[in-house]
Amino acid sequence: LKEFLPQSYLKVKGIEKKIFADHKKHIGLSELDAKVLYTKTARSLSTYGVTFFLVKEKMKGKNKLVPRLLGVTKDSVLRLDEKTKEILKTWPLTTVRRWGASPNTFTLDFGDYSDQYYCVQTTEAEQILQLIAGYIDIILKKQKAKDHFGIEGDEGSTMVEDSVSPLKATIMQHETSNIGKGNVEAVSVAIPAVIRAGGD
Known about the structure:
- By secondary structure, the protein is of the alpha+beta class.
- The protein is built from three helices and eleven strands.
- It has a four-stranded antiparallel sheet with strand order 1-2-3-4.
- It is flat.
- The two termini are 43 Å apart.
C-alpha cells in the first residue's frame, strides 16, 4: 500500500478492504475506460484544480498559531482543515478587494463580503500573491470582454474588429454598365479589416 497511497491514508482503518471492494466493481473495464473513469472521479472532487499552501493562522481568542491549508482555484480562495482536508470557508475571488504579502505573512481583504481581513503566516506569500493576482487578472479580462461585447466572455468566444479608415480602401474593380435609361457606375471596393477571433 505504501507504493500507491498517500502517507495520510496508510493508517486509515479498513483502507485495504475498501480498495479491494472498489477494485471488484471495476474488473473487466478496458484500460481506456478505467482512465476515463479515474479522470471523471478526480474532476468531481471538491478540491480538484486547487493549488494548496500550508499556512498558519491565529486561533480566535488565543495567541496560538494552528496549521491550515490555503487553497486557490481559478475562481475562489479556500480555507481547509490541514488534517481532514475539509473545506471550512470559501471566498469567491470576485469578492477580493485587496491582498498583500510580506516575507512571513499573506493578507486578504474581502471588503464588505467579510467583516475582517484574513491573515496567515507563511513563507510562500509571494507565490500565493502571484497566483491570486493572475486569476483575478483573468476574471477582469473576461468581465471586460463580456461588458464590452455583450457576449458570454468565455475563453475562445471573443471577437475583436479594428476599424480601418476608408482612405486605406483599395479599388479592386471599376465597371460602367447601362441599366435601363441611365449609366450606372459600379465600384467594388476591398476594405482591409483586421479581425481576430478566439481567445488567449
